[in-house]
Design a protein that fits this description.
Pfam families: GntR. By secondary structure, the protein is mainly α. It contains five helices and three strands. Helices cover about 65% and strands about 10% of the residues. A three-stranded antiparallel beta sheet has the order 1-3-2, covered by helices on one side. It is elongated. The relative contact order is 0.12.
Length: about 120
Amino acid sequence: MDESRPIFVQIAEGIENDILSGVLAEEGQVPSTNEFASFYRINPATAGKGVNLLVEAGILYKKRGIGMFVAEGSRQRLVAKRRDQFQSDYVRPLLAEAGKLGISPAQLTEMIEKEGTA
């Protein structure tokens, strides 16, 4: 766990990562808040807060008396969300810094391709 960020946010991100990586399949059941609480040694209310973030976002849904499940289309929605986030968090600042240094988009592409093959 990262001490600098709220635990419930980290739980939500962990579930998202498991959906993106295929560990949790669409329509598959998610561990209960009590299981998260036990695993991370936290209050069940904190675990529930993380799960509820994803329920509110439509990534998870509740089946009364059964548990939480991954909603259909969740992986695709998460990929779109993370791509937008990647663009704003990484690509825009990268382009801004490249512009300050006089690096053209073509040169930047070449640098990235070179790193990708290393």
